[in-house]
Amino acid sequence: MNGFEKRTLKKRKAILDTSLSLFNEYGYKNVTIAQISKQTPVSLETIYNYFGSKDNLKNELIKQIIDDYCMFVEKVMNSSDPILNKLQKILLSKVDFAKQFSPQFITEELHDLNDTDLFGGKEKKQFLHTIILKVVEQGRNEKLITVDVSDEAVAAYIEINQYYITHNLVSTLQISGNNVNLLKEIGSLFLNGLKK
Length: 196
What we know:
Blueprint: H1 3-26, H2 33-39, H3 44-51, H4 54-77, H5 83-99, H6 103-110, H7 115-118, H8 122-141, H9 151-167, H10 169-178, H11 180-192
Helix pairs in contact: 1-2, 1-4, 4-5, 4-8, 8-9
């Protein structure tokens, strides 16, 4: 990567980081491209050249967050951790995913996204499903998953739990922010569902 490409990536990151901060603080509808430009060392024209519109900027921001999440999940799955640690990290990572957004931004802008949109398309969704099947395989090998159902049923169980968290981000923020013990108990209930 040459110097120009590095500067471009640095500017794009600054724009996306500033946008998320402003969207969370003031709400997506209340933030303008001009405000984003004032908060970053980037001109208004450059922002429009990179993104074209505020909607495209928001979509790129969400895509970047989802890409980062998928890379995190892949890193966790490729680690040498026992499956229990991997499951806890992956499930709790959804809470961290939710914490990146303010309740106002979630309510205003993320509530209309469907499952495919939220996971960046069918390709990302299939990627995550494949990882979940690896979790199931390792869980069976380590005797954490002992329930007498198919691997697809266990994967669906995990995906249903993740779906709830992802599509109820405000509730996830409330649970995680107000009561750490409740979050641990929910995790325990989830894990008990994988055993005979």
